[in-house]
Amino acid sequence: MHTTTGLDHRKLLMWLFLGSDCMFFGSLIGTYMAYRGRSLSGPLPSEVFDIPYTSVSAFVLLMSSLTMVLALAAIQAGDQRRLRIWLITTALLGMSFLGGQFYEFNYFVHEGLGLSTNLFGSSFFVLTGFHGTHVAIGVLWLLYLTAASRFGRLNAEQALYVEIAGLYWHFVDIVWIVIFTLVYLLP
Amino acid sequence: MVTTLPRPGVAAPAGPPAAAPAVETPPAYRGFTSWLTTVDHKRIGLLYGTTAFIFFLIGGLEALAIRMQLSSPDNTFVSPQVYNELFTMHGTTMIFLVVMPLSVALFNYIVPLQIGARDVAFPRLNAFSYWTFLFGSIFLMSSMFVDGLPDAGWYGYAPLTTRQFSPDTRIDFWALTLQVLGVASMAGAFNFLVTIINMRCPGMSLMRMPLFTWNTFVVSFLIVLAFPAITVALILLTFDRLVGTTFYYAPAGGDPLLWQHLFWIFGHPEVYILILPAFGVVSEVLPVFARKPLFGYPFVVYATVGIGFIGFGVWAHHMFTTGLGPIANSFFAASTMLIAIPTGVKILNWIATLWGGSIRFTTASMFSIALVSQFTIGGLSGVMHSVVPVDLHHNDSYFVVAHFHYVLFGGAIFGLFSGLYFWWPKMTGRLLNETLGRWHFWLWFVGFNTTFGVMHFLGVDGMARRTWTYSAYQGWGMWNMIATVGAFMMAVGTLVFLYNAIRSLRHGEVAGEDPWDGATLEWTIPSPPPVYNFAVEPTVRSRDPFWLLKRRPQAVEAEDDTARISILGKNVAVAEVEEEHPTEERVEERVATGDIHLPNPSFFPMITALGLTLAAAGLVYGIPLSVVGLVYLLVGIGGWCLEPTG
Ligand SMILES: [Cu+2]
Predict the structure, then answer these.
(1) Domain extents for chain B?
(2) Chain A residues within an 8 Å CB radius of B194
(3) Which residues of chain B neighbour A40 with C-beta distances below 8 Å?
(4) Do residues B267 and B408 lie in contact, with contact meaning Cβ atoms separated by under 8 Å?
(5) CA–CA separation, A8 vs B367, rounded Å?
(6) Where does residue A106 fall: left (phi above 0), alpha (psi -120 to 50 degrees), or beta otherwise?
(7) With an 8 Å Cβ cutoff, are B197 and A5 in contact?
(8) pLDDT-derived band of residue B34, with 50, 70 and 90 as boundaries?
C-alpha cells in the first residue's frame, strides 16, 4: 500500500512548482501569440530580430543543461572539485545568455523598440524579461551552491539540493526553446 | 433491512488505543510571541480562521450598506462612488479574504489530522502563507487612507481598470493585493499537495482518504494551476498602469478581452476553489450524522477530480455577451452543461447517503443538508446560464447575483459553517450550544432565501446589478425592501453565532475526543489535540477507520475472527482482529522520552511575508518602501535557509 511517493518533499515541491510555472509561461506566451501581427506601428519583429545571433545564445543556454547534468554526476560521485567546476561553468553559461539578452534588448531600444512602443515591444519584453528573471534567479542559486560546496556545507548526501536546482535549470532551458521557436523562428 | 451504526455513548466502545495521555505543552509553544512564530498547522489554522471571520464581519457590513441603499427607490443612503466601492470590496473581501482563507483554515487544522500526520510537509511555508495573507489584506484596506477603496468590481474588467478610466491609485492597490494574496494561496496549496501526496499514514491509500482531504487535494491543484493566469493578467494590468504599455488599451491595438480571458481562465476554477472545500465538509458531515458511510465513495472522488479537470474548459461562459462567435459559444455552452453532471452525481450521492440513514439533526448536519438543497437551486440557475440565449437575457442582471449567492452563500458559506460546527469541539475542546445553533441556522436559512430568492424576480424583471439606485416607477421597491429585511435577518443570525462562539470558549459543554461518533482519524485524539497530534503514528485498514476501530471490540466479544461492519446488508469493512495496536504504556514511554520531533518556531516566515508585501506596497507608496521590503525579504529568506529546523 503506497501512502507516499518516496520522493523527497522538496523535490516534489519543485515538480509541482514547475507545473504551476508552466501555466505562468503558458499565459505569457499565449498573450504574445494573441498579439502577433497586431501592432499598429513599427518596429516589427522582422525588422529587429537577428536569428543567427539569438541561435548562438540559445545554444549557449542549451549547453548549460549539459554542464548541469555533469555537476549532478560529480556530486553523486563525491567529487567536490569537479562539482564546483561544473556549477561555475553552468552559471557562466547562464550569465553569457543573460549578457546576450541584455545586448539584444539594448540593440532593440536603439532601433526604436521600447517596452511601450507597440504591442510587439510590450509582449516581447514582458515575456523574455520574465524568462530572463528566471535565468538570473537560477544563476544566483548556482553560485550559492558553489559557495556552499566551497565551505564544505554540501556533501555527497546533499546531492538532492543540486538535483532540485538542476530540475529548475532544465525547465528554464526548455521554456527558452519554446519561446525561441514561437517568437523568433515562426514566420 | 437497515443496519445503522450504534449511537455514541450507547454501544460505541471506549476511546481508541492510540489516544495520547496529556502532556505539558513545550515552552516554545506558549505565550503571545509563540503565535507570531508558530509553525504548528493547528495554530495557523486558528489564525487563518479568526482573521477570515473578522473579514466576514467587514464584508457583511458592506453587504448591509448595499442593502440599505437599495431598500427603497431613489435612495441616497450612500453616494454612487461609495456604492461602487462597497460592491467591489464586498466581492473582493468575501472571495479572497473570507471563503478562501476560511477553507484554508479548515484545511490546515483538519487535513494533517485526517491523514494521520504530525504536521504539514513545510511548516514554515505554511506560516509564511498566513502572514502574507494578513499583510496583503491590511495593504488592501490601507487604500482607504490614500485615494480611496477600489471601485471597479471584484473582476476588475479592463478597460475600466486602465489609467484612462481609473487614474488614481485605487486599482493599483487592488491589483497588487491580489498578486500578494495569490502568493499566499499558492504557498499554502503547494504545501497541502506535498503533504497529502507524501505524508499519509500507513494504510491510507488514495481511495481510503477522507473526502475532505480529497477536496483539499483537488482544490490545491486548482490553485497552483489557475492562479498563474490571474498573476499574468495582473502583471499586464500593472505594466499598463505604471509603465504605459497598451495590453488592454484598444486605441493602441490592445484588447480588453484579453483581460476577460485570462481572468476567467483563473476565475472559473476559482469558483470550484470556493465551493469544493464545502463539498468536502458535507461529504464528511452527512455520513456521520446519518450514521452510514458515504454512498458511492469512488463516484464522489471521481466526480471531484472530474470537476477539477472540466473546470479549466468552461471559462468563456462568463463571456457569452462579448461576441465570441457561434462556434466558441457552442463549445463553452456544451462544456458548461457537461460540468453539471459530476456535480449532479455528488448531489445524488449525498441524498443517497441520507436515504435509509438514522439522521441526527444537529446544527452541523442541518447546514450540510441546507447546502445540498440551496446549492442545487444555485447549480440549476447556473445550468440555465449555459444556454447562450438565456444568458444574453440574464447577463448583468440581479438574476446572476441571485445565482452566485445561492452557490457561494447557500453553498460555500453554509458548508464551511457546517464544518465549523462539526470541528469546533475538536479545535476548542468545547461544543457550541445547539439551541443557539438552531437560531443561527434558521435566521440564516430564512434570511438567505428572503434576500436572494427575490433577486431572481428582480433580475428577470430587468434590474441591472452594480447600479446605485432605481426609480420608483420601475416597481422594484417592495422586492428590494424584502431583500433588505432578509439581509438583516442574516446579520442577526451572525450575531447569534458570534455570541455562541464566545460563550462556548468558556462555558461550552466539554466535548471529549469524539462527540459525534466520528469516522475519521481526527476524532481518535484529544480535543484540542496535543502539539504532536498523534503520539503513535496511526495505521488504517479501511475507509472510515475510526468506525472500524470502535466496532472491533464487539467482534472480539462475539468471538468472530473478523470485525465486520455491515450497512444495508452489505459489508463495508473487514479487519483482522488479532492485529497489534499500540498500548497506553508504549504511548506514555514515547512522550516521556521526547521521542516526538517538533519543528522549531521561527520568525522568518513573518519577516519574509512582510518583506514581500512591503516590496509590492512600494509600487504605490514610493520605491523606498520597496527597497526596505526587499531588504526584509532577503533577511527573511536568508534566515529561513540558514536557521536550524530542529
Ligand atoms: Cu464559470
Answers:
(1) 232-241+257-467+503-517
(2) 9, 12-13, 16
(3) 252-253
(4) no
(5) 40
(6) alpha
(7) yes
(8) confident
Is residue B562 pLDDT above 70, yes or no? no
Residue B645 has pLDDT above 80, yes or no: no
Residue A4 counted as domain residue: no
Show the domain range for A114.
Answer: 9-32+51-185
Q: Do A126 and B236 touch (CB under 8 A)?
A: yes
Check residue B401 and give its pLDDT.
Answer: 96
Check B224 against A9: CB less than 8 A apart. Answer: no
Does residue A44 lie within any of the structural domains? no
**CB contact residues (below 8 A), chain B span 206-265, against chain A:** 224-229, 231-233, 235-236, 239, 243-247, 252-255, 258, 262, 265
DSSP letter at B593 equals T
User: Which residues are registered as beta bridge partners of B567?
Assistant: B570
Closest CB to A24: pick one of B231, B236, B258.
B231
Q: Could you tell me if residue A131 is inside a domain?
A: yes
A162 near A83, Cβ under 8 Å? yes
Domain count within chain A:
1
Domain B232-241+257-467+503-517, classified CATH 3.40.190.10, yes or no: no
**Domain at A110, CATH number:** 1.20.120.80
Q: Is A61 inside a domain boundary? A: yes
Answer yes or no: do A7 and B198 touch at CB < 8 A: yes
Q: What pLDDT sits at residue B21?
A: 44
What residue in B sits closest to A9 (Cα-Cα)? B194
Q: Do B252 and A119 touch (CB under 8 A)?
A: yes
- Check CB contact of B186 with chain A, cutoff 8 Å: yes
On whether the pTM is more than 0.80, the answer is yes
Whether residue A154 contacts residue A141, with contact meaning beta carbons closer than 8 Å, is answered with no
Find, among B16, B39, B19, the residue nearest to B534 by Cα. B19
Residue B552 pLDDT > 80, yes or no? no
